[in-house]
Each structure stands twice: as C-alpha cells, then as structure tokens.
Amino acid sequence: MAYVPLPVRQADVGAAVKGLAALGFRGASVTIPHKGAVLEHLDRVDGDAALAEAVNTIVVGVGGELLGYNTDVGGVSAALVDVCGDTLRGAPGLLLGAGGAARAAALALARLGVDLTVVNRTAAAAERLVALTAAAVPGSACRWLRLAELTAAHVAAQRLLVNATSLGMDGAGKVPASLADTVTAGQVVFDVVYTSSETDLLAQARARGATVIGGLEMLVRQAAAAFELWTGRPAPLDVMRHAARQR
Ligand code: NDP
After folding, report:
1. Is the separation of the CB atoms in 199 and 172 below 8 Å?
2. Which positions ≥6 away from 13 have C-beta within 8 Å?
3. What contacts 20, CB < 8 A, 6 or more positions away?
4. Has 18 been annotated as catalytic?
5. What is the DSSP letter of 160?
6. With 80 as the cut, is the pLDDT of residue 55 above it?
7. Hey, which of 165, 167, 212 would you mutate to test ligand 1's pocket, going by the most ligand atoms within 8 Å of its Cβ?
8. Which of 29, 83, 109, 201 has minimal CB crowding within 10 Å?
9. Do residues 93 and 159 make contact, with C-beta atoms less than 8 angstroms apart?
10. Model confidence over 69-101: pLDDT tens digits?
11. How far is the CA of 62 from the centre of ligand 1 (A)?
C-alpha cells in the first residue's frame, strides 16, 4: 500500500471524494480545512464523526460506498489518558478553537468529564460546538468565551489547557500571549499542532514547569485507528511512532 498527500481546493472537495472509489483508493485521511466539508459527500457517517460533525477518515467500502469516521476523538483521549489517567473528571479545562480538531477534542474532553470552556475567535463556531457537545454528552459542562475576552485569570483557573487551533503551525500565527504567558506548574498543556520541533506554546509551558503533551502522539493514535479501519489489521503503533519522529 502507499499513503500519498493530495492537496485539494475547497471547491473540489466533492469531486475529490467522489473520485476515491473510481481511482481504486482503499480510503483517505481528511485534514485541515476539509473535515466538515466532506460530510455531505459521504454515503454514511459513523457515530463520533456525526456527533462532532467532522470526518478525518474515509473508508471506501464494498461497491464503492463512502463511509466517514472520526479517529481524532479517540486520538485525543488516548494521548490525554496516557499522561493524566482518570484525574480529569470535574477538572476545569480550556479548549482553544472550534474547528474540526476542536470538535473532536471537545467530545473526548466532555466524555472524560472535563468542565470545559471553549474559546474561539468566531462566536458562531463556538456556539455550535457547545451545542454539539451538550447534545453528544448529556450532563457535560461546556460553555464558551470569545478569544478577545480571554484573560490571564481565565487561564490561571484551569487544570488543562488545549490548543486545537491552527495557531502554532508553521506559517500560522502564534497562540495568544494571554494563554502562553500565564501557564503555571501543575497545569497540563496539550497542543494538537504537530511541528518538526516543539511548538512555542509547549516550549514555554515546559519551561514554566507544566506537564506538556504534543500533537504527535495524537497524530499517531488517530492514524493507528485509521490503519485498522482500512486494513482490518492491528496497527504497528511503535513502527508508526518511530516513522512519525523521523519526519
Ligand atoms: P480548522 O480550519 O477546522 O479550524 C481552525 C481553528 O483555528 C478555528 O477554531 C479557527 O478559529 C482557529 N484559528 C485559525 N486562525 C486563527 C487566528 N489567526 N486567530 C485565532 N484563531 C484562529 O482546522 P482543524 O481544526 O482541522 O486543525 C487545527 C489544527 O489541529 C491544525 O494545526 C491541524 O494540523 C491540527 N490537528 C492535529 C491533529 C493531530 O493528530 N495531532 C489532528 C487534527 C488536527 P475561527 O473559528 O475563528 O476561524
């Protein structure tokens, strides 16, 4: 098998997805910014993908049926549970972002029992995310705040800080100083962004004594789950981790 990167323009998402079966693909990963846009072009969408309104894995089924899954939700959970165990129930957590990755993260965090505040630049996306999370995880605590209103006091009140925006990616902007400059020891900082070196947010959090979790472990975990969906075989996690670190 081969796994190849295929950049697709927004206007071509439907045509690209429809072409997968004709081209003989077993499936595809979907990444920024198309995780929401692919939904309407699929024949069926699995539980977590439907709940988060975000698909990161497409499986081409029997007869060319296009099935959408979300393995980011499990990837976030696995990366967090590895480090925090079951200590997050009832803990205050701040989730920066309301895009595809953030919708998956919110679902995972709500299931882990985090008392969640979503912070986003665009209010409509944050409102939608809070509504999705409340519907998906009844009884969960989830509210939102405009990014412009984020203060050091909000950050200081958290046990968990998660960046699920594209801020910190190569070529994107930086995570706001109100977040990065206020991190304290005792907090857990999870940056879903994966770059060749540690992101500025994680480097700063580490220097301040916080526990840090990088995006690479989530990347490997979501990829492992996708591998299993495409092949029906257990994923070689260590081989995948090693390959990811070689980039
Ligand atoms: P989306 O385009 O769906 O969402 C982007 C998010 O970033 C939105 O909340 C957007 O806010 C916010 N944002 C972008 N630019 C700015 C800015 N200048 N100021 C403030 N907020 C901004 O992207 P994804 O959710 O798909 O991806 C986000 C990141 O997560 C990427 O870096 C991606 O690589 C990473 N990722 C990592 C994974 C892993 O396995 N480690 C898996 C999935 C994603 P607004 O709503 O206002 O536009």
Report:
1. no
2. 34, 37, 38, 41
3. 27, 28, 58, 60, 66
4. no
5. E
6. yes
7. 165
8. 83
9. yes
10. 999 999 999 999 999 999 999 999 999 999 989
11. 33
The closest of 110, 37, 44, 99 to 76, measured between CA atoms, is 110
pLDDT given at position 241: 93
| Cα–ligand 1 centroid distance for 63 (angstroms) | 34
Residue of minimum CA distance from atom 31 in ligand 1:
166
Specify the pTM. 0.93
Structure tokens at 164: 């699920």
Q: For residues 162 and 93, is the Cβ–Cβ distance under 8 A? A: yes
**Does the structure show a pLDDT above 90 at 103?**
yes
So what's the pLDDT on residue 172? 85
Nearest-angstrom CA–CA distance, 231 and 103: 26
Ligand 1 centroid from CA 232, angstroms? 30
| Inter-residue contact 83 to 211 (CB < 8 Å) | yes
Residue 36 in tokens: 């929401």
CA distances from 245 to 5, 45, 46, 228 (A): 18, 31, 30, 21
CA of 192: how far to CAs of 29, 101, 245, in Å?
17, 8, 15
Two tokens at 25?
Answer: 């693909």
Among residues 34, 35, 41, 221, which one is catalytic?
A: 35
Angle formed by the axes of helices 100-111 and 72-84, to 10°? 50
